[in-house]
Structure formats: C-alpha cells, structure tokens
Automatic annotation (TrEMBL):
Protein name, UniProt field: N-alpha-acetyltransferase 15, NatA auxiliary subunit
Alphabetical keyword list: Repeat, TPR repeat
A Pfam family the protein falls into: NatA_aux_su
The keyword Cytoplasm is assigned to this record: no
Organism of this sequence: Caerostris darwini
Compositional bias per record (Basic residues), positions renumbered to this chain: 9-18
Length: 277
C-alpha cells in the first residue's frame, strides 16, 4: 500500500474510533439517566406506600364546616348561568339573610323583582327584609342611604303589615300566594294564628293552584311551625287533601304516620291522578 493511501486509511480508522467512542458515551449517559429515573420513581413509590390513605366516610364527606361558604360557591355559577331564573335570586336571598348581608339581600330582591314582582316567595322575602331593616338599630350611613332610596320602590312607605294585608287581598284566590301571606301574617303577629291558618285551609273551588305540590308545601309550613303549633288543624287539612287527591299515597301515608309529608315524598303517589279542573 502506498504511503499516501496508508495515511488516508489510518485517518479513517481514527475517525471511526472517535465516532464509536462518542456513540458509546451517549449510550452510557442515556443508560445512567434511565437508571436515575427508575431509582427516583422507586423512591417515590416507596414513600407513597408508607402514607396511609384517609378512609372515605360518606357521612364525613357530606358535612362541611362552612356550609354558607359552600352555598355561595354553588350560588355564583347560578348567578352567571341562570340569572334569568327567579329561583336563583330567591336562593341568594336565603343565603345572604343567614349571613346578615343587607345590601346583598337587597340585590337579590331587586333581581327577582325584575323577573316576577308578584312571585309569592319574593313577597315573603320582602316582608322579612323589611322586618330586618326596621328592627336594626345601627346601620352605617352609606348603607342606610342606599336602603332608603331602593326600598321606596318596593314598599312605597308602607309597613310590612300593610304590605302583607294588601298582598293577601290582591291574591285571595291563589293558594301559593295565600300560603306566603299567611306565613308572614303569623310572623308579624303571633296573635293572628287562627286567621293565618284559615287562609290556607279553608279553600274552595274558586282558589287556584290547589295542587298536590302546593298542598304539601302548606303541610310542611304547618309541620315546621311557620303557622305556629297547629297539630289539630294539620290533621284536618291532611284529611281534606286525602279527599281531594284520593290516589295520592303521599297524603295517605302521612296521615297513617301522623306526620306531614315532605316535598320529596310527592314522588310516591301513583301516576294515575285525577286531572285538575
């Protein structure tokens, strides 16, 4: 082999060895990296195995230390996505009245008013709010100014009692409205219990909205004490509901158990109910 060719051949060999060494170094580094990763994962798995998982107890998960805070978290998406539904703002009022937030209560009333100013449950919110504001001795001046300006729109300088009496007279033929008016009448004057109960128990064919659901709400109000202690009247009303809805097992079962039914128990009645006129 000529000297020039020999030199060229040796150069190729050196380059080949260098390439082989570089490739080997890369493979070694990659192998070390894989081993380190595997070792790290094994350590993490070992640590995880050493931690005892908390037992999942349904009763514990259902409870919360901050129920109103959780309720507000549930409310905010509704205010954004279901602001056109009055139920959203009625719910908001129930939360804010428990948190004693006057301006937020007012905000809920205003939003509900724009949707349906004659909604029966909005009326009860108006009366309760009026009662709270009128009984509050100390209200910050800026808040008081806002309340006075905004409340004039709803109350027109009328007292809670006057507003409730007008409501009962205006909606004297609607059971849902009579129920809320009766609840507020007893709330404002405990001496008016007999009259309040009569609004929702002495109904006739002229009264609209006498449905299974509304009758259940009346019984719930009586059972919860919204109309005072009235076991005798509740038993009598249950009998009347049985006669009015003979196929609704919800009233028959409640009468047998001597308790008022709940709203959820309405699902227990049979499908073949008589149609209401």
């Amino acid at each position: 082999m000529a000297p020039a060719e020999l030199k060229k051949y040796r150069n190729k060999q050196r380059k080949a060895r260098k390439r082989a060494e570089v490739e080997k170094e890369k493979q070694t580094a990659a192998q070390e990296k894989r081993e380190q990763h595997i070792k790290s994962r094994q350590q993490q798995d070992g640590e995880a195995d050493g931690v005892k998982e908390e037992e999942l107890v349904p009763e514990k998960l259902a409870k919360t230390e901050d129920s109103l805070g959780q309720a507000i978290r549930f409310l905010r998406p509704l205010q954004n996505l279901a602001s056109e539904r009055i139920e959203t703002h009625l719910l908001a009022f129930e939360i804010y009245i428990r948190k004693d937030k006057l301006l937020l209560m007012l905000q809920s009333i205003k939003r509900a008013w724009l949707i349906d100013p004659n909604h029966p449950k909005l009326h009860s919110n108006l009366i309760r709010f009026c009662n709270i504001v009128s009984s509050r001795k100390e209200i910050p001046a800026p808040v008081k100014t806002v309340l006075e300006q905004e409340m004039e729109r709803f109350y027109k300088q009328k007292s809670a009692h006057e507003l409730n009496e007008e409501f009962l007279a205006q909606f004297s033929n609607s059971m849902p409205h009579l129920l809320q008016g009766a609840r507020m009448k007893y709330c404002l004057d405990k001496q008016s219990q007999e009259k309040a109960i009569s609004y929702v128990t002495n109904f006739n064919n002229q009264i609209k909205g006498v449905t299974i659901q509304n009758c259940i709400e009346v019984l719930e109000a009586m059972r919860n004490g919204d109309l005072g202690s009235c076991d005798k009247e509740m038993a009598s009303f249950l009998t009347k509901c049985q006669e009015l809805f003979p196929y609704a097992t919800v009233f028959r079962q409640a009468h047998e158990n001597n308790v008022g039914p709940t709203t959820n128990s309405v699902a227990n009645h049979v499908d073949s109910l008589p149609k209401e006129e």
